Amino acid sequence: MGQKFVREDKGLHKSLGIIADVLRNFDLSTNEIRIYLHLARSGFPIKAREISDALSLHRTETYKILRKLEKRGLVSSVFEKPMKFLAVPFEKTIGHLIETKRMGISLLERKKKDLLAVWSSIPKFDKEPTAASVFQILEGKEQVTLKLKEMLEKAEREICMFAPKSDLVRFYYWGVMDELEEALKKATKVWFLTDRSSESRFFVNKTRLSRKKCADAPNIQDLPSFIISDQTQVLLRIKESGVNNRAKREKKEKIRFLWTNYDSFIKVLKTLFPLLWNTKVASSPVLALIEA
Question: Who contacts 165 (Cβ-Cβ below 8 Å, separation ≥6)?
Answer without folding.
Answer: 194, 195, 197, 199, 200, 221
